[in-house]
Amino acid sequence: MHGFLNISLEEIKSNWVALNNASDGKAAAVIKANSYGMGMIKIAKKLIEAGCSYFYVANLDEAINLRKRFTSKKISIAVFEGFFEGSELIFFKNKLTPIINNLDQLNRINKFNIHEKKMNAILNIDTGMNRLGLSELEIAYIFKNKDLLKVTKWDFIMSHLANSNDKKNLENYKQLMKIKKFSEVFPNIKLSLANTGGIKLGSKYCLDQTRPGIGLYGIDNEGKNLKIKSQILKLPLELYAPIIQVRDVSFGQPVSYGGIETTKRKSKLATIGIGYADGWLRLLKKNSTFSVKKQKCKIIGNITMDSFILDITNVNKNKLKEGDYLRLLDNSNVSKIIKNLDIISYELLTSIGQRIIRKYS
């Protein structure tokens, strides 16, 4: 028996449409890490139906896989990791858009575009995150050597907001001013800055393109529902796991590895067929209280690789049996599950393992 995810492609589409409307029709979609574990190909297909034509992925393998399914030149696929030596023809033959993160990569694509057919690209400048993109010294060098940006055709100058989930953080405005200052020197190149949080910061951050990722799933990094122009977005998935055994246990019996907890009464325990190998991490135990037949049930003992044990003593004895499925995660509890655990919604979604069957509607 396997756990499964019910994923609503229509709700993902609806979330993107809301984000696109809030972006004045300029939203792309970030579908890296197999669309945060939800299925890159199926989600891309649904978003293309909704009008999305620009996608971002993490690396070249993801990009090639996506391009094999969507061959149209009208669909752009940009690769965050950069433009490495030896990858030039792969990018070109697969009609992929490299994101240029340093001067070496800039020189590499310029050299290719001088001697070969033209390849569009995105120039990434670091405005305060210190992760990827041209450094301040490299930006200063480009200001003194403006012709470096005349060889290649640029889809966008991009940067990435580091604190967009905190609307009061002044670094957001500083980053906006830095990319605009760069744009003053190269006014004919479009700008892309806002992620999901950036869209919520307002239209001045949306510029010429936005790049929602977690917003496709209707939530922010804390798992709270996004409110976009008075519309409340929804988490478009539900996670179910099977009961693989039910047993009666007497008072004072140790439960699971290490016996960290013992039964406080004569108990009925259900072993649930999902564990940390499936993404239900040990740290989630603290907040893992589930409503089963209107009764609150908690995990007892350690979560293990393939299962955890749920105390179902308060549930009517005839209500649950082996083979039944319990809903563990949905729009009502995702923020509660990760609250105060030093884990964000991105981690929760991308941790859901491949043994969990994806079902789409």
Describe the structure.
The chain has 361 residues and is of the alpha/beta class. It has two domains: 8-228, Alanine racemase (TIM Barrel, Alpha-Beta Barrel), CATH 3.20.20; 237-329, Lyase, Ornithine Decarboxylase, Chain A, domain 1 (Beta Barrel). It has helices at 9-22, 32-36, 40-50, 60-69, 88-93, 103-115, 136-144, 170-185, 196-201, 334-338, 345-351, and strands spanning 4-7, 29-30, 54-57, 76-79, 97-100, 121-124, 154-158, 191-192, 227-228, 231-232, 237-249, 254-255, 261-262, 267-272, 289-292, 295-298, 308-311, 325-329, 357-360. Helix 1 (9-22) packs across helix 3 (40-50). The radius of gyration is 24 Å and the shape is elongated. The model has no long low-confidence stretch (mean pLDDT 96).
Break the fold down into its secondary structure elements and pairings.
Elements (H helix, E strand, L loop, with lengths): L3 E4 L1 H14 L6 E2 L1 H5 L3 H11 L3 E4 L2 H10 L6 E4 L8 H6 L3 E4 L2 H13 L5 E4 L11 H9 L9 E5 L11 H16 L5 E2 L3 H6 L25 E2 L2 E2 L4 E13 L4 E2 L5 E2 L4 E6 L16 E4 L2 E4 L9 E4 L13 E5 L4 H5 L6 H7 L5 E4 L1
Parallel strand pairs: 1-19, 2-3, 3-4, 4-5, 5-6, 6-7, 7-8
Antiparallel strand pairs: 1-11, 9-10, 11-14, 11-18, 12-13, 14-17, 15-16
